[in-house]
Design brief:
InterPro entries: AA/rel_permease1, AminoAcid_Transporter. This protein has 19 helices and 4 strands. The chain is mostly helical. It has a single domain, classed as Amino acid/polyamine transporter I, CATH 1.20.1740. Helix 1 crosses helix 7, helix 1 packs across helix 12 and helix 3 packs across helix 15. The radius of gyration is 23 Å and the shape is globular. The relative contact order is 0.20.
């Protein structure tokens, strides 16, 4: 199970003096009087902000173009947005049952581990680290860079190189915050969440006012189905579902309220877009909110790109805060290299899990394009979401007496699971290149699992190299295993 290698915390007594231990009342303590552990520093407001900040990310400013492109008409695109909201609500309720049934930390990884076993759980970690999180972070970063740069070059096209450079700067800022302090990351998220909600309201109000004044020409013949093809529909849903990013663990009432609110907001934002832009103009726009602002908010048009860019930072921050903790738990369970289960001895942050994602994100920013990255990441993401809810149904059948403080109606769980598998399967036909690559990369995790976890059969020389690299990384990053159990 990725055995050996990293120097255990008790063997590292010269790391800035912070690792000198004494026994006080049976507990290990550092020279500064505190044990090394991942602190619980997220209060109610930051927790709510992380949920909202994850749901309301950059998607509503990126995805409208992708939804319209693949649905074929204004009316159908609005239907897709509504259905995506309902589907996300169903999924979030399923995850509420999973979260209350399995209180152990680790989120999606833990749910798969408890319901379907170690191989699906490992594959979830594999694809999360290898391309899901880097893809998600890179297309959110590219949206950030585009909205920052476009405002300076409009109406001309912004230089691609400059967009990618600004995108890298944005993700670097977020990584630095999450490496520095949990409390700083949470305070940043609270601030950015309020900003992004203000941005949505600023878009909705002028759109609703114009609609009330009779500006409805872009909604005429809104349900033309001539350009709709079944093979493109899954990609429309991928773009819409990407915007929702349903919360994976919180109380059912909060889920219902938040998802209904977000769905209403998203539909109204799209109505506002179509009120001010024709479908052709929206498809031509590389930064939809900027084009909207130039039409509807001429007095404060320059403010919208800034608000959207900050919203993208909020989505990035929420992702980098949550996902490394999945890798952290996987490493703690022996399904991932032990270095990922270590935390900084002074900052008390999961530094390796945050920092080692960074190079992959930068590579994808340099080589990828937003809508290709969405399709690329969405296949594996929604496949494993469907697997988790399928595992929930199987676990219900196998262990009917297992405590479940909240049970989602079975019709909702079955509907969500079937729809997800259908969309995922059809997307292989719709976009075989991007979804096919995603599928193949997912399967590459199977031999890795059997070589490194199920049966530890790496050649001895490889083990020595792996152990040496792990040890040097631990020393370089000044990280150690937790010294108290927090789970």
């Amino acid at each position: 199970q990725f055995k050996g290698g990293p120097v255990e915390s008790s063997d590292r007594r010269e790391m800035d003096g912070a690792q000198v231990k004494t026994e006080v009342d049976g507990k290990k303590e550092t020279a500064g009087g505190e044990v090394v552990h991942l602190r619980r520093e997220i209060g109610l407001l930051p927790a709510v902000s992380f949920i909202i900040g994850t749901v309301v990310g950059s998607g509503i400013f990126i995805a409208p173009k992708g939804v319209l492109m693949n649905s074929g008409s204004v009316g159908l695109s609005l239907v897709v947005w509504g259905l995506c909201g309902i589907l996300s609500l169903f999924g979030a309720l399923c995850y509420a049952e999973l979260g209350t049934s399995f209180s152990k930390s680790g989120g999606h990884y833990t749910y798969l581990l408890e319901t379907l076993g170690p191989l699906p759980a490992f594959l979830r970690l594999w694809v999360e680290f290898l391309f899901i999180r880097p893809s998600v972070a890179s297309y959110v970063s590219l949206a950030f860079g585009r909205y920052v740069v476009e405002s300076f070059f409009a109406p001309c096209a912004a230089p691609t190189v400059l967009i990618k450079l600004v995108s890298i700067l944005g993700v670097t800022f977020v990584v630095a915050i999450n490496c520095w302090s949990v409390s700083t990351a949470s305070r940043t998220q609270v601030t950015l969440t309020f900003i992004k909600m203000f941005a949505l309201v600023l878009i909705i109000i002028p759109g609703v006012i114009a609609l009330a004044q009779g500006k409805t020409e872009n909604f005429q013949n809104g349900f033309e189905v001539a350009s709709l093809t079944l093979d493109r529909l899954p990609l429309a849903f991928y773009n819409g579902l990407y915007a929702y990013e349903a919360p994976l663990r919180t109380i059912p009432l909060a889920i219902i309220c938040s998802m209904v609110t977000v769905t209403i907001f998203y539909v109204l934002v799209n109505v506002a877009y179509y009120t001010m832009m024709t479908p052709a103009e929206l498809l031509r726009s590389e930064a939809v909110a900027v084009t909207f602002a130039n039409r509807a908010l001429q007095g404060v048009a320059s403010l919208i790109p800034i608000l959207v860019a900050l919203s993208c930072l909020g989505a990035l921050n929420g992702g980098f805060f949550a996902v490394p903790r999945m890798l952290f738990v996987g490493a703690r369970e022996g399904h991932w290299p032990p270095i990922f289960s270590m935390i900084h001895v002074r900052r008390q942050t999961p530094l390796p899990a945050v920092l080692l994602l960074y190079p992959l994100v930068v590579v994808m920013i340099l080589t990828g394009e937003i809508y290709q990255l969405i399709n690329f990441a969405s296949f594996a993401r929604w496949f494993f979401i469907a697997l988790a809810t399928l595992g929930m149904l199987i676990h219900r059948y196998r262990f009917p007496l297992h405590p479940r403080p909240f049970k989602v109606p079975v019709v909702i769980a079955v509907t969500f699971t079937v729809v997800c598998f259908f969309i995922v399967g059809l997307s292989l036909y719709s976009d075989p290149w991007n979804t096919g690559r995603s599928f193949i990369l997912t399967l590459t995790g199977v031999p890795v699992y059997y070589l490194t976890v199920y049966r530890y059969r790496l050649p001895h020389k490889w083990r020595e190299i792996f152990n040496y690299i792990s040890t040097q990384l631990q020393i370089l990053l000044e990280v150690a295993q937790q010294e108290v159990q927090t789970y």
